[in-house]
Amino acid sequence: MTQRILIIGAGFGGMWAALAAARALDLAGKTDGSIEIAVVAPEATLGIRPRYYEADPGSMAAPIGELLEVAGVRFIAGKVERIRTGLREVDIIGADGRSSSLGYDRLVLASGSSLANPNLPGLKAHAFNVDQRDEAVILETHLRLLAGRPADASRNTVVVVGGGFTGIETAADMPSRVRAVLGAQADVRVVLVERAEQIGPELGAGPRPVILQALEHDGVVVRLGASVTQVDEGGVNLSNGERIAASTVVWTAGPVASALTQQVPGRRDALGRLHTATDLRVDGVEHVFAAGDVALAKTDDLGHHASMSCQHAMSLGRSAGHNAACDLLGQPTRPYRQEKYVTCLDLGPWGAVLTEGWDRKVVLQGVEAKQLKQQINSVWIYPPPAIRAEALAAADPARLVVA
């Protein structure tokens, strides 16, 4: 009877989980087809999500169907609607709209995250975002159409809400994106609104002076200690009483884990992430592992946890896939650790900033850091070639990930 390792999601966590599971079976000499690895996702495509703040987001996707095939992984086009851990099966709505159920012996949940959408007046109707590729494309289309609107301050103003990683990168890139549409001499105003008293609150004090210097250079105005209370077709209202007239409002204020985490027994944090053991097994559910943005996983013994980022999703995926396969084979699992942590933040035309460690010590900035960021965005985070030996070698869970 064939056993099955089922992986939900084909993002950074899911793709690498599949390749790592295949690698583990190869190393164990288990290539007789008695264990199937299957991935369920809407399409066999890796969306390069960390780049959706850039121009031309529609091109930021990499096909992975051939890669999964050469690795011996079955791809199932569809969406998981229900996880029944008691029965070890899932319900799937296929690409053709048909419903089916699929059993599993080990499950890796890597269904990712989505942008938090609070019940803020006008948010859904009037704000854009760069969370998913189709949503980023909608923003891109909107920006391209600005040239056909009457020239005024509102048309030329963009408000970016949320001064975290995505918000900073989006705001820093936005002046040049808008000028590419309106003309190099256009009087473009970009306002970055952050409710905390400091920019990039989760990034710490280390890179903050560099970030502020870069934003000023790029022509981004920063509003701190204020939140958006209303969005409408003409702009936003802030909690400090300020009104900003703008034809473009981009919401970047934080992700939440996939709703599928609610169908898995276990503890969740405020963002919906499942608490995991050191081998990424969901606490209290022996046959389910979590990877990427759905996992609340310790990176070390100092109290740090993986962030909801591409960098951590890649490492989490490798470890979760490897451990799911090893657990099914009766072999020891390995603890997930990512004690070396770096961040590389794109700061638009000014450059970028690279930090190391959880205290985020600045080690590179400006043009040199920008060259590294471009290498990360255009090469390092893309899938490996569809060559079995290279793909499986790249899925080694001991491999250091810098992204």
TrEMBL record:
GO biological process, one term: aerobic electron transport chain
Entry keyword Nucleotide-binding: no
Any GO molecular function: NAD(P)H dehydrogenase (quinone) activity
InterPro entries: FAD/NAD-bd_sf, FAD/NAD-binding_dom, NADH-Q_oxidoreductase
Keyword annotations of the record: FAD, Flavoprotein, Oxidoreductase
Pfam families for the chain: Pyr_redox_2
Domain of life: Bacteria
Residue ranges annotated for the FAD/NAD(P)-binding domain, each copy included: 4-315
Requisite cofactors: FAD
Family: Belongs to the NADH dehydrogenase family.
PANTHER family the UniProt entry points to: 64 KDA MITOCHONDRIAL NADH DEHYDROGENASE (EUROFUNG), APOPTOSIS-INDUCING FACTOR 1
Listed name of the protein: NADH dehydrogenase
